[in-house]
Amino acid sequence: MPSGRTPEQFTKRSLVAVSHAIERAALAEAEDGPLVVLALFQRLPYFAREREVYRRIAGRAAVTVVAMVGGPPPDLPDGAYGVTLDEAEALAREWTVVALSPRFGATLVAHDRAEVAPAPTLESGRLFEGRWGFRRDEALHEAIRLREQLAERLPAAARTALDEAIARVRDIPAGPGEPRAEAALRLLARRGDRNNQPVEPAEAMLDETGLTRWSGADGVTASGTLPVALVGLRVEAPPGSPERFGRRGVAREGHAVLTAITAVLRPVDRALRVTENEFQLLLPGLDEPAALEVVRRLHDAIGALARSYPFMAYTVHAAVGVTTRRPLPTADLRAAVDWAVRKGVPVAGLPTETADAVAAPAH
């Protein structure tokens, strides 16, 4: 990093706040020469939320470039240039906003860690690592970097305007007072972070409404970013349990099963109770081996209940998959559990987003 700054960790919530600050600065009235704005949005839904802001920016800037996987929308604001990112390239995991003029510069460069922190929603807790600042020469460096990486995908007119703006910036030294202004901004940002209420411990077990809210299905989210491991679990008591052991006893053992399930959850995880004996675990940032380890722990914990309740030998069937789809494919997960029960398979796997459930080794 040319600034020598130590990378910071951002949640999605704080990252959006910095993005908005830079965009607001780009919209401010100022006679400071040609303005360049470049932004990487990862996926279209994140840009769609800011479309009106970028329409206004494009009306003021000499060059406005927005890039995302899958390409920009067909109704991109006039004056903005869209760039399609390949899902496999490094820029696809970057959330970046750069504003540059001869007398001003602001930069946010953040890389998606594909992890989450505890937060009210899955989206707001996404973690990024990067840096931000209001230094013109840092913004110049980032504008040059992005120009080099995106040049072949920009039309000639955009490249020419970008090159002219960058050349103009190079002709004028940065203002010596930038560090003072940035120090004040960072103090305000830290105080804002302190004023945010800490995240209260959330209920790990959700209902359908809670799942919709937490997963972002009724807000702004996008497929292809954060992986979430899904574990479907059906826990079946011996036939005739209520008649043999009494409903109070069955309820007591059922509570023990519920406790065993929630015990494997991290603070960022959630679970959905689908039916009386079927559950879905939502484990952000885990890969399939880690999810299978969770299933192994669940098998051990539920199997161990027989020591306390010797007549309650539960049968457990599970399905495991990792998805970046939004909304989360919970219906597919339930179908995979049904498949495991029909086939008598302890653990069914979903090796790809589109494949049918196939047997996976039990652990």
Automatic annotation (TrEMBL):
Chain ranges of the DICT domain: 7-112
Pfam family name, one: DICT
InterPro entries given in the database record: DICT_dom, Nucleotide_cyclase, Rev_trsase/Diguanyl_cyclase
Source domain of life: Bacteria
The name this protein goes by in its record: DICT sensory domain-containing protein
Species the sequence originates in: Micromonospora sp. HUAS YX12
